[in-house]
Amino acid sequence: MAKGERADRLKLETVTAMKAKDKDRLQVLRMMSAAIKQIEVDTREELDDDDVVKVVRSYAKKIKDSIQGARDAGREEMIPALEAEMAVVQEYLPAEMDDAILEGLVREAIEETGAVSMKEMGQVMKAAMTKIAGRAEGGRVSAAVKKLLAG
């Protein structure tokens, strides 16, 4: 399985959850492990810590979408379980980047690409996402790029 600090922690906490008979936490940890393993099987490569973060971030996005879907469908009874699942997943994600730092990195990306209008947003996003390296969600980066290119 994957190598790195987060992958090792995931393995260790899975065993701990099994011993503690914490079914809910164990289920979430196993789902994350399965998602990581699936990517490794598909790519035939062992994932490093950065790749593990990408997989976990993708899993977190699915949970957020499920929470929103439950709200939209009026299924409020599902939300507490999904939020508990999200709390476990959040433990494996790096802290979100501060807005000021995010904006600074987006400014750097705009300067590097020479972008002056929204037409170059794709180039700026590519450069910015490389700099940000998973420390902020794409939606936040996109909003910052739009704000700085428009104003």
Question: How would you sum up this structure, described in words?
Answer:
- With 151 residues, this protein is mostly helical.
- The chain folds into two domains: 5-90, Orthogonal Bundle (Hypothetical Protein Yqey, Chain: A, domain1), CATH 1.10.1510.10; 99-150, Arc Repressor Mutant, subunit A (Orthogonal Bundle), CATH 1.10.10.410.
- 75% of the residues lie in helices and 0% in strands.
- The protein is built from seven helices and no strands.
- The protein has helices at residues 5-20, 23-43, 49-72, 79-90, 99-113, 121-132, 138-150.
- Helix 2 (23-43) packs across helix 3 (49-72).
- It is globular, with a radius of gyration of 18 Å.
- The mean pLDDT is 90.
Question: Which features does this protein show?
Answer:
single chain; 151 residues; mainly alpha; Hypothetical Protein Yqey, Chain: A, domain1; Arc Repressor Mutant, subunit A; 2 domains; 7 helices; 75% helix
Total count of domains = 2
Nearest-integer average pLDDT: 90
Which fold name corresponds to the CATH topology of the largest domain?
Hypothetical Protein Yqey, Chain: A, domain1
- Count of helix runs: 7
Largest beta sheet, briefly?
A: none
Helix fraction by DSSP (H/I, runs of at least 4): over 70%
CATH domain class of the largest domain: Mainly Alpha
* Class from helix and strand fractions: mainly alpha
Which homologous superfamily in CATH is the superfamily of the largest domain?
Uncharacterised protein YqeY/AIM41, N-terminal domain
CATH architecture field of the largest domain? Orthogonal Bundle
Our measurement of the CA-to-CA distance between the termini, rounded to an integer number of angstroms, reads: 46 Å
